[in-house]
Amino acid sequence: MDFKDKITDLRKSTGMTRKEFCVYFHIPYRTMTEWERGNRHAPEYVLRLLAYCIRMEGLMKDKTEDNH
Question: What's the pTM value of the predicted model, to 2 decimals?
Answer without folding.
Answer: 0.85
